[in-house]
Task: inverse folding
């Protein structure tokens, strides 16, 4: 299940989710959405429903841990937190991202 | 997330769907709440939340898909990878699968037999509620057969409250005439309660009624469906038809349903009368169906309480036998009737094959370790690329699981052949319930289960080893000359293989020695050139002693006149065959003989000469010792020694009757002393015996079964046809019960130990082979890994012999440690064989020494090849290697 590191679009969403969870700790899906909106200053708007397949996939891959808990207004909500293996993956994604953006920047500069 | 969780996800899909729904709903609701807080109208808040979320159904489906795809992908990936890796090393794969197939095959074959014989329930209604009632002397000829005397049965059935109903029966061979050719059939003679206790009703007609239990009731019989079909062409009007069984006309009153053949393949059932009267007692199996609320233990307690009041006890006590001593009262599962004797043997076989499997596992683990050390590079690279260790271990375990499952499937095929070989090797009649021995779901489950367990057993250690921490240093050393933990582990595995093999070999050695001892026993007669023929005369046709004796006399006369026959004799209970008259006797001089039981064979005058039983003093019986002459007896040496230690037995008198009549009629004069004969079995000490001339025996009961024996000049078997002819001439309606040479009969009595010995020997040879391969593998691998070191040694001036010695020294070390551990293990384990060993202690020193020496020799032999290869190392090439 490591093939998708090549898939940039999916990789980007993964990276954003991992980053959000790495900095904020335990969050439910809605909070993750808000956090991504907030750090990208609402520039990156994603269809909120598409977050959930990613959250579940990353849980299966062992990057995230999921558990049920009570929300601020006392409703049952599913909370996610990042695992050590998730942090490793985040580092990997960040490295790739840096490489990619560097490459793109270089291309832009030369052209 | 563990595999288990993932797999259970697949099963709990519905639950997951509900959870997911709740999770998504929470998101939408939270967004609505925030929108409301921001001042939107209810309507706008909802709309905005839904728009932002996008297609909910799609999100749900995609998420669910994710959960499943990931599982399938990882499993599929592991499997594909394992397959590729196994295909890359076909030699390794074939060897590992073969080793596992042998191990699992042997286990499954033995388990198939155990399953059929011990585990499958009897094909009866609620067989677990059926129990045998046994009250027997702990020692003696009948020990180990759960039976009850007819006196005791009569009393017990009236007193017991533990059982709904009880029944007793015995198995017999009968001759059916008048329905095609005369044929010998297995029959069961049963009380009327037999069928109700088993809760089986006839397919046609009825079973025995209570009054048919009485003696002298008109003859009736119940047929098996099989017999009804094969002999009576499934005649629908069979009821009431008359058949002839052992010369008696009986009318058919019922036909049992198809498949019912209890006990042991019975074709015909006849009524049994038990009256508990008369001085003699018969021991028959008795069983009953427990009351619903009663447990086996309660029934046991009741039997123990009732036992002292049972009459046979009093009969024995009155005759001077020790009263309660050594009698065992037991309630046993009905199955024990069939399997009691074989159970322990089977369990020992199970143990032995388990050892073989462990050795096979150690071998494959070794192979995996070797392969693992070759794959360190690959593992190191994958670790460096960020593969978590758990994932690598799982990958390697998938590989070993595939190997062992392959082994299990091949093992099942081996097992099918193995069971056939096993049953062919087993002497006839030793393994009960043969029809139940077949491949069923439980056997297949057993084989696959073994595959799964062994896969983990031999896979885990190498997997942990191959992905170990020092992988990080491996790359930096560029794969140079890394030895160490792998080699140590491999040595440990080989040592355990040797130890396990030693235990098995010791068991085989002990059994073999015991078997040879058995074969060397002097039975007290000379079996060579003796042919025997047993004839059971039906009491219905031969009612009087005179009639029976006339039959015997005529047969004997004709037999002794056959060409090639040196002498012909007869005995009512041949040594080493089933049964004998056994009981007490009294001395004329009034000395007590408490509890002294003797065999009481009746023999013809030539019997001792035919059997080669030595006459030690006095004379043998002669034709003059007939029914009108003074009654005489010949005693065996041990009787003479016990009661006439001075050697003055001749001329003394004794009686075999419990209540001798006054006068001379029941008193026998001793005219000779003969050697002791092993009547019961080769392994059981000769019983004291008192022989009577058969012409002076009065009760027909003691004469109806007679074995004729002829001593022949040439091959005894060549006279079998002539013997059969003689019998036909005397009475064409009497088929022989059996015709067999005495040597064959002797061999039959040790057939079971022979079978055990052979089987354990085969298993231990298999173990030895696997262990030899193991030793070879470890040394070969060590030599390969140390090529460089050997090269350096040789460059520094080491001789070839030094190198050989170095390798062999290591080999010897492995063998010695393994043997030492094995001896300790064997000392602990061989005790279970004690019951099967004859004149050999489970700790027999010579056996241990021979086996240890053999094992060390085999280990050294398997080390020879790698040692030789080591000497062929060219130092120049070795140093440039790598």
Result:
């Amino acid at each position: 299940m490591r093939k998708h590191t090549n898939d940039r679009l999916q990789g980007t969403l993964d990276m954003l989710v991992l980053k959000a969870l790495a900095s904020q700790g335990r969050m439910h899906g809605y909070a993750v959405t808000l956090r991504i909106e907030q750090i990208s200053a609402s520039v990156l708007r994603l269809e909120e429903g598409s977050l959930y397949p990613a959250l579940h996939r990353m849980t299966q891959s062992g990057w995230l841990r999921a558990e049920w808990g009570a929300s601020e207004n006392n409703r049952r909500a599913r909370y996610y937190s990042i695992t050590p293996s998730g942090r490793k993956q985040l580092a990997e994604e960040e490295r790739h991202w840096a490489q990619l953006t560097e490459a793109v920047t270089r291309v832009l500069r030369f052209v | 997330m563990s595999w288990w969780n993932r797999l259970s996800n697949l099963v709990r899909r519905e639950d997951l769907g509900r959870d997911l729904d709740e999770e998504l709903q929470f998101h939408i609701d939270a967004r609505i709440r925030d929108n409301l807080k921001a001042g939107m109208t209810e309507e706008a808040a909802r709309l905005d939340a839904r728009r932002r979320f996008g297609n909910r159904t799609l999100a749900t489906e995609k998420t669910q898909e994710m959960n499943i795809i990931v599982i399938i992908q990882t499993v599929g990936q592991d499997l594909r990878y394992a397959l590729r890796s196994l295909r890359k090393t076909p030699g390794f794969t074939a060897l590992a699968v073969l080793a596992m197939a042998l191990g699992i095959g042997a286990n499954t074959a033995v388990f198939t037999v155990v399953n059929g014989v011990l585990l499958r329930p009897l094909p009866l209604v609620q067989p677990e509620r059926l129990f045998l009632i046994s009250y027997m002397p702990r020692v003696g000829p009948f020990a180990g057969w759960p039976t009850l005397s007819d006196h005791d049965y009569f009393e017990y059935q009236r007193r017991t409250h533990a059982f709904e109903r009880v029944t007793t029966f015995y198995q017999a061979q009968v001759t059916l005439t008048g329905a095609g050719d005369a044929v010998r059939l297995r029959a069961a003679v049963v009380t009327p309660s037999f069928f109700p206790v088993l809760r089986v009703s006839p397919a046609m007609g009825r079973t025995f009624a209570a009054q048919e239990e009485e003696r002298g009731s008109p003859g009736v019989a119940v047929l098996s469906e099989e017999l009804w079909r094969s002999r009576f062409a499934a005649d629908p009007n069979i009821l009431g038809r008359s058949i002839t069984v052992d010369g008696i006309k009986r009318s058919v009153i019922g036909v049992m349903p198809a498949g019912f053949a209890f006990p042991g393949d019975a074709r015909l059932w006849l009524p049994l009368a038990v009256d508990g009267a008369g001085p003699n007692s018969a021991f028959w199996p008795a069983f009953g169906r427990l009351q619903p609320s009663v447990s086996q233990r309660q029934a046991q307690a009741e039997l123990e309480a009732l036992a002292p009041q049972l009459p046979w006890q009093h009969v024995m006590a009155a005759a001077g036998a020790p009263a309660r001593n050594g009698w065992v009262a037991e309630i046993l599962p009905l199955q024990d009737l069939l399997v009691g004797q074989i159970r322990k043997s089977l369990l020992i076989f199970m143990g032995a094959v388990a050892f073989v499997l462990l050795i096979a596992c150690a071998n494959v683990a070794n192979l995996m370790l070797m392969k693992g050390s070759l794959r360190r590079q690959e593992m190191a690279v994958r670790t460096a690329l960020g593969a978590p260790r758990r994932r690598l271990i799982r990958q390697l375990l998938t590989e070993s699981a595939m190997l062992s499952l392959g082994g299990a499937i091949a093992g099942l095929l081996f097992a099918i052949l193995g069971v056939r070989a096993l049953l062919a090797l087993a002497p006839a009649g030793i393994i009960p319930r043969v029809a139940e021995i077949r491949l069923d779901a439980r056997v297949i489950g057993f084989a696959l289960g073994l595959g799964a367990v062994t896969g983990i057993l031999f896979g885990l250690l190498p997997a942990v080893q191959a992905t170990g921490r020092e992988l990080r240093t491996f790359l930096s050393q560029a794969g140079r000359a890394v030895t160490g933990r792998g080699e140590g582990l491999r040595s440990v595995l080989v040592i355990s293989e040797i130890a396990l093999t030693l235990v098995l070999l010791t068991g085989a050695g002990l059994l073999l020695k015991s078997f040879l001892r058995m074969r060397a026993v002097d039975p007290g007669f000379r079996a060579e050139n003796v042919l025997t023929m047993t004839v059971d005369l039906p009491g219905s046709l031969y009612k009087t002693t005179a009639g029976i004796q006339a039959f015997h006399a005529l047969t004997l006369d004709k037999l002794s006149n056959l060409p090639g026959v040196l002498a012909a004799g007869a005995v009512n209970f041949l040594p080493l065959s089933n049964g004998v008259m056994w009981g007490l006797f009294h001395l004329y001089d009034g000395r007590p003989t408490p509890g002294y039981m003797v065999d009481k064979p009746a023999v013809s005058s030539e019997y001792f000469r035919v059997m080669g039983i030595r006459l030690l003093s006095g004379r043998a019986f002669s034709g003059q010792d007939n029914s009108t002459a003074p009654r005489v007896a010949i005693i065996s040496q041990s009787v003479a020694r016990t009661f006439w230690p001075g050697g003055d037995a001749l001329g003394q008198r004794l009686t075999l009757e419990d209540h001798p009549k006054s006068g001379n009629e029941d008193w026998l004069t001793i005219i000779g002393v003969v050697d002791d004969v092993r009547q019961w079995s080769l392994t059981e000490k000769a019983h004291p015996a008192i022989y009577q001339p058969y012409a002076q025996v009065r009760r027909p009961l003691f004469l109806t079964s007679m074995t004729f024996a002829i001593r022949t000049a040439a091959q005894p078997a060549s006279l079998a046809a002539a013997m059969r002819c003689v019998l036909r001439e005397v009475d064409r309606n009497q088929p022989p019960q059996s015709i067999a040479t005495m040597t064959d009969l002797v061999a039959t009595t040790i057939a079971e130990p022979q079978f055990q010995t052979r089987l354990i020997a085969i298993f231990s040879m298999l173990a030895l082979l696997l262990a030899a391969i193991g030793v070879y593998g470890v040394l070969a691998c060590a030599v390969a890994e140390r090529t460089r070191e050997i090269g350096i040694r040789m460059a520094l001036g080491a001789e070839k012999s030094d190198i050989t010695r170095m390798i062999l020294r290591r080999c010897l070390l492995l063998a010695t440690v393994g043997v030492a551990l094995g001896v300790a293990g064997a000392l602990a384990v061989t005790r279970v064989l004690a019951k099967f060993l004859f004149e050999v202690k489970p700790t027999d020193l010579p056996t241990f020494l021979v086996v240890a020496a053999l094992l060390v020799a085999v280990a050294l032999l398997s080390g020879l090849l790698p040692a030789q290869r080591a000497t062929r190392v060219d130092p120049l090439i070795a140093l440039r290697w790598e």
